[in-house]
Specification:
Number of helices: 7
Number of strands: 0
Order of helices and strands: HHHHHHH
Radius of gyration: 36 Å
Strand content: under 5%
Low-confidence stretches: 236-248
Amino acid sequence: MKKIFDSLMELLDAIDSILQSVSNITSIGADVAETTGNIKDVTVLLVFGCAVLILLVIAIVALIFLLAVHIFNALPIFLVAKKFDRKTALLAWVPFMSRFALCDIPREMPLSVLWIKKGFKNRMVVYLFFSIIHLFVPIIIVLGLIVIAILSVAGLWALSPELVIALLLVGICLDLIFLRCKYLVLRDVLYCFYESKSLNFTLALIATIVDSWVIHIGLAQAVVLFALVKKQPLLVQQDLDYYDYHEV
């Protein structure tokens, strides 16, 4: 009887040892899971930190690039404007205002944006007007198309292909008028240095097309203007026939 009792006690001790081992294994598993979770959190933080760092580096590089492009575009406008003692020369360093400094260089020349022979005398007002139209009208057109599309989906408006085509044509016409304005401004500046109509026409046209439809950052115009920095302007601009060359 005593042997049976002793055997039962040994069996209970063995079961208790097994349960204790299972408890230890469970505890170890919990520790491992916690460690894995911590590693996962650290990994997420490292990945997020690396992503933020990469974005920061890209932003800094982009900012430096934009600053370099702005200086490259503004410097020749400033230097050429200073040749004519224009008070607006400092506008060359102001973002989105540099072209107004460029407009003021050949101030005696009227701007024939709409193919009017004698043109408009206040060049900067004309350019400001067409700049605002070129900026806001396309935005209004796009917003209008979005509203019409929403109303069409809701069944409140029948989207007409003719209307879309008409709005797109309006945007294209405005873009062409603005490009002509940009071209004339650069051509008039060139005309202050070169009497050759064909040279002025060619350089201004190529620079305008490249900057507007190819690289979009004004480098072609800057290269053309840098060529004028060391060149002396024509001594008497009044001797030039301003109206004949506007027919080109």
